[in-house]
Structure formats: C-alpha cells, structure tokens
Amino acid sequence: MNTPFQNHPLRVRRSLLSVPASNARALEKSTTLACDGVIFDLEDSVAPEKKAAARAALKRHFSTLDRTCGREHIVRVNPLSEDDGAADLEAVLECAPDAVLLPKVCEPQDVLAVADWLSEQGADDGPRLWAMIETPAAILNIAAIAEVGRTSGSGLDCLVIGLNDLRLATGIADMPGRPYLVPLLMQAIVAARASGLDIIDSVHNDFADLEAFAAECEQGRQMGFDGKMLIHPAQIDGANRAFGVPAAAAEAARAVVAAFALPESAGKGAINLDGRMVERLHLAQSERLLAKADLIADKEKSP
Ligand code: COA
Ligand code: MG
Q: Of ligand 1's atoms, which has the minimum distance to the CA of residue 38?
C-alpha cells in the first residue's frame, strides 16, 4: 500500500527564495535565478509603512511575469487577522500565484479561514495553500494542521518551517546543528508525511557563510525535508545540490529497478541485490527518485 507521502504529487522544491515585494531590484533579479520557487513576501520583510506599495509592486510584477518559466510562484501574505491580511488576499486574487503562504499559523482554523475566504470569492480552484510553522502553538498542533491538507479539500500542500519566529517566541538558542530544535522539526516532518504534504526547512540567516549553509542543508536533507527557504541568491546552488538527486543515488535507484525487472524477480517481494535486501517498497522509492531526477533534468534543460 502506498503511503500518503508516496501518493503526493511529485514537485521539485529544493530552493524557495524569499523576495521582499518592496524591493524592486530583488523582484527583477528573481526572474533570472535558478531557484525552484519564488516566495514574494508581503509580511515580515516589508516595513509596515511599505505594505501598500509592496502590494502594488507585486501586482505590476505579476502582470508581466512569465508563468511558463518552471518556477513556482508563491505569495506570503500577512495574517488574515491583521489589517493588511485581507488586502493581501485581494492582491493574491489578482496575481493568481501558484500558492499563498500563510504566516504564523497556530491551528487548523487559520488555514480553513483562508480556504473559506477564497471559496467565497469563487476561487475554489485558486492558489494552493502553504502554512508557515513558526509559532509554539503550531508545533503543539502540528498533526491537526497538517491533517487539514489531507481531509478538508483546502488545497494545503506544503509546510514551511520558520525558525526566526520560533526562536523568538521560545527562547531556543540559534546554534550550529540546531540540537534543541531537531526534535520539534522531526515532529513537523512526520506530521507532514502522515498527511502527504511537502515540508521545507527554514531560512539560514548568515548568507555570507556558505559552508555553514551547506552543512545545514545536508542536515535538513538527512532529516527528510524537501528543500529550503532561502533569503539570498548565493544560497540557491547549495540548496539545489543538497536537495537534488546525486548521480550515485540515481545509479543505485536504476540498479534496483533493473534488478526487479529480471525474470527471476517476478513474484518476489524481496530480493538480494549485491548482498543487500531490497523490497518492492524500495522499487517504488527508486522509481520516485528517478522521476524527481527527470523533473530536475527537464528544468535544467529549459532556458
Ligand atoms: N531576492 C532576489 N535578489 C536578491 C535577494 C533576494 N532575496 N537578496 C539579494 N538579492 C540581490 C541584490 O539585489 C543584489 O543584486 P545585484 O547586485 O545584481 O543588483 C545581489 O543579490 C547581491 O545582494 P547583496 O548586496 O549581497 O545583499 P543585500 O545587502 O542587497 O541584501 C538582504 C541582503 C538580507 C537584505 C536581502 O538578501 C534580503 O532582503 N533577503 C530576503 C529577506 C526576506 O525575504 N526575509 C523574509 C523571509 S525570512
Ligand atoms: Mg516571520
């Protein structure tokens, strides 16, 4: 039986660059960068007095945006409970991005309220919903929040960890290796997988230290994240590498597929591949990995 994780549509989300919608140069530059997605930010990176101008700039940007460029376009809005939230969602209706990223989600209702609002505007087939997991309440309610993606038809399909807010709200230290955060992050990953959602690791603030960034990407990959939210173009290559499919992994996956295709493997659930047990679940896993490698190769081919 396939798990919700395996049944989830395969999307390549290695590198998601946050771009303050108030920064004209960054908006322009984002159309040239090799990230898998751009998160246009109307929330924390935009000063309160610049929110309206940022929405206007975002609408202008979307009016000329090439939607066939292979990048996902996501808009991070302010919370619906705040003044700018509703105006941001109005802008989202006009821009029609692939997804809306909801900040400071605390409970399922925070996602359902936006799904209802979009539905009331006749935008049922509108953008998918993504949720920032960055409050202590979200960590406590993580399974229920993720379940909204499996059970409600809300369009929730991705969680994004936000450690700057979570550290601020909890006092957990910012340390290499994130020792006190790992248990919380693992809960979020398991909750996302139980509901078949993608999950993206938090930003790394020190964009000048690419070595520390690479180490954090590798840790995130080992933990099971699909990709990383980024703050600076210099971080894109490292994230694409860490969350991509290394040649050796693709080769190993092809060996599993070839071994199960042999006549003597017919009707067997488990086989011996060079002294290692491989089961049909590894075949499914290998096929998914190769499909991801193909999607990445297609991306890299397109101009
Ligand atoms: N998106 C697109 N382009 C970006 C960018 C971003 N997030 N961050 C920097 N750039 C561009 C700059 O415009 C500059 O372009 P240019 O030299 O071709 O004109 C180039 O990359 C180098 O930028 P640099 O001078 O190193 O950085 P900076 O001082 O301009 O900006 C930050 C540093 C941190 C202020 C900026 O990277 C930023 O705002 N990041 C996003 C913050 C954010 O979204 N936070 C919310 C999520 S936590
Ligand atoms: Mg924040």
A: 1
Output the CA angle 88-18-82, nearest 5 degrees: 30
Other Cβ atoms within 10 Å of 27 Cβ, number: 20
* Residue 202 CB–ligand 1 contact under 6 Å: no
Domain boundaries, given as residue ranges, for the chain: 4-242, 247-301
Structural contact between residues 6 and 288, judged by C-beta atoms closer than 8 angstroms: yes
CATH 3.90.1150.10 matches 4-242: no
Q: How far is the CA of 134 from the centre of ligand 2 (A)?
A: 7
Q: pTM score, two decimals? A: 0.97
DSSP state of 177: T
pLDDT at 303 (0 to 100): 59
Closest C-alpha residue for ligand 1 atom 41: 231
pLDDT at 217: 98
At residue 2, does pLDDT exceed 70? no
If you take atom 46 of ligand 1, which residue's CA is the nearest one? 45
Residue 84 in contact with residue 56, Cβ under 8 Å? no
Ligand 2 centroid, distance to 283 Cα (angstroms): 39
For the residues 189-203, what does the mean pLDDT come to?
Answer: 97
165 Cα–ligand 2 center, Å: 5
